[in-house]
Design brief:
mainly alpha; 434 Repressor (Amino-terminal Domain)
C-alpha cells in the first residue's frame, strides 16, 4: 500500500486494515514508522469526516462532578456562593471567564470545553 492522503471510505478501510496488520510493529523500524504514519493519516481523515463536537460545558461540569464524587458545595471556591453555583448549574447564569479559569486551574478541567457557548435561561 502506497502512503498518500486518504480520500474516500475505501482507502480509509484499507488503512485501518493495514494498521491492524502492523499493530505489534516495534518502534523505530520500517514497519513501526509505517504504522505511525498510517495512524496520522487516519486521524486526519477522521477529524475531517467524523468530527466530535465539544460537550456542553454544564453537562461536562456535571459529569466531572459525578466522576469525582463532588457536591455543589465543592464548586463554591471556583464559582462563588451556593446561590451562584445553583444559578450556573441551573443555566440561569453563564460561567464567567474568571470562573472558567478557577475551574480549569483548581480542578484541572479543560478551559477550551468550559468556554464553549451554551444555552442560558432568559429571565422572564
Amino acid at each position: 500500500m502506497e502512503l498518500k492522503p486518504i480520500r474516500n471510505k475505501r482507502e480509509y478501510q484499507a488503512c485501518l486494515a493495514e494498521v491492524e496488520r502492523l499493530w505489534d510493529a516495534r518502534p523505530h523500524t520500517p514497519e513501526g514508522d509505517r504504522l505511525e504514519v498510517l495512524v496520522l493519516l487516519i486521524q486526519a481523515y477522521e477529524a475531517k469526516h467524523y468530527p466530535i463536537a465539544d460537550p456542553d460545558p454544564i453537562m461536562f461540569l456535571l459529569d466531572a462532578m459525578d466522576a469525582r464524587g463532588l457536591k455543589r458545595k465543592d464548586l463554591e471556591p471556583y464559582i462563588g456562593s451556593r446561590a451562584r453555583v445553583a444559578e450556573v448549574l441551573n443555566r440561569v447564569r453563564p460561567l464567567s471567564l474568571e470562573m472558567i479559569r478557577r475551574l480549569s486551574e483548581g480542578l484541572g478541567l479543560p478551559a477550551e470545553v468550559l468556554i464553549q457557548r451554551y444555552d442560558v435561561q432568559r429571565a422572564a
